[in-house]
Amino acid sequence: MNRTIGIVLIIIGAIMIIWTGFTYTKKEKIVDAGPIQISADRQKTVNWPPYLGGILLIGGIVIVATAKKTS
Questions:
Q1: Which domain holds residue 15?
Q2: Backbone angles phi, psi at 37, to 5 degrees
Q3: The pLDDT of residue 54
Q4: N or C: which end of the chain has fewer CB within 10 A?
Q5: CA distances to 27, 33, 35, 47 from 40, in Å
């Protein structure tokens, strides 16, 4: 189980280092006056620091290295 968690952390860490964020579009209502509704598409950005991916990557490597091998 620890080995699986370590591998998942390594994969997530590598992805977070390569892609430091993503952008998505959200439709927001600007005016809602009875039967008249005006909406606009707004772009939202989610960013995370690259060092967070590095911490997850190193943590995953440590977990995989210290996991007991089962035979």
A1: 2-66
A2: -130, 130
A3: 94
A4: C
A5: 6, 15, 17, 23
| Diameter of the chain measured on Cα atoms | 68
What's the number of domains the chain is made of? 1
pTM, 2 dp: 0.69
**HSE-up (13 A, CA, CB side) for residue 61:** 7
Q: How far apart are CA 3 and CA 44, in angstroms?
A: 35
Looking at residue 30, its pLDDT comes to: 85
With left for phi above 0 and alpha for psi between -120 and 50, is residue 58 left, alpha or beta?
alpha
Query: Tokens representing 67?
Result: 């996991």
Q: Both tokens of residue 58?
A: 């190193």
Question: Is residue 50 in some structural domain?
Answer: yes
